[in-house]
Fold:
Amino acid sequence: MGKYFGTDGFRGEANVSLTAGHAYAIGRFLGWYYGRNHKDGTAHIAIGKDTRRSSYMLEAALSSGITSSGSNAYLLHVTTTPSVSYVVRTEDFDCGIMISASHNPYYDNGIKIIRSTGQKIEPEIEAMIENYIDNGIPEIPLARRDHIGRTVDFSAGRNRYMGYLIAIPTRSFKNMKVGLDCANGSASSVAKNVFDALGADTTVINASPDGTNINRDCGSTHIEALRRLVLEEGLDVGFAFDGDADRCLAVDEKGQIIDGDLIMYVCGKAMMEEGRLTDNTIVTTVMSNLGLHKACEAAGIQTVRTAVGDKYVAEKMMEGNYKIGGEQSGHIIFSKYAATGDGLLTSLMLMQTILDKKQPLSRLAGEVTIYPQVLINVRVRDKAEAMSCPAVQEACRRVEASLAGNGRLLVRESGTEPLIRIMAEAPTDEECRRAVESVADVMRAEGLVVS
Structure:
């Protein structure tokens, strides 16, 4: 990870660690860098944003940077991260930019850069951008006269993405009662239209963004509201998206949460039975529950693990031409249809499986026995210092020895925040809690934790 770019782009509190100045510099660099590939020096860059108030400020700054370098900025306006990925790879753009901090609070924001293949930009280019932000290298000339770029309204790109999604399912959703929690974010402008077009009886909550309510007590990180909706309205299924709609979690007809692990199992097993699962393999991360791996083994499905981060999942899927992979958090990639995680696509694929199997979601997911899992986030002064501390490493070894054969411990750095994430799986919640707290206590005793 670089100084500014982490596992999911450049993220930080708006006008604190991520400013309009940063956005302008990024736009300047991208407009120049990709403009070199064109005889007239004009690159074509798509920009989407979520509903945060600061997204409008960053959109304007990015557009100014791009056009001042002589390239054109195409504005998708409020849309989802996957829609930017789709538009970039199908409309011959040089790259795309999504302004979003995903599931973070409204006062945070982020800049995700997407290459022409629809995947996240190469680390080498991120490093060059950072050098330009800090040192002004290379020196980029300002475009003059008729070489100054244009800002273009490209809301049609979002509509094409919606049409693409609607064309994917092979069954009508008629007579299916579906709940959607749009997290007051990007899905608010897309999700209901897609499900209505497919014939579902759709009930939507948290689709009234005001610039500050994105992810607030709603969406995939606060799924309680969707659970209540499903149970009170007697719905067949519910889907919750995050702020930029690149992840999706579900709720079955009994109000049980269906996380990314369970979604991968249900869809992956169906794909295997239809002969559509390459090498009978799904790609998971190290955070996936032991219960998923045991259920996959029993079903004859192989699993390949990667580091946490959907870009690592995407890379592994490309290496093996795998068809499904993802994260427990709901970032699921269906590589036949998309190059990155797509919450709306995930909801459609799960709906298709429910209809194909003619079984309720609770029964399809009930084949997996999930191990209790506890995850805590410890805010630290320095992530590298905390991870390399001998006392912390010894505490981890003790916990791992105590869990041997019946659970596991995972301690890792957050890619976007000054946090150490400590996760344990064990037969009981009490054992999980004891395991994570014992490591956290050592961090506190060593003076590594900040309040």
The mean pLDDT is 96. Residues 300 and 350 are 20 Å apart (CA to CA). The chain has 15 helices and 19 strands.
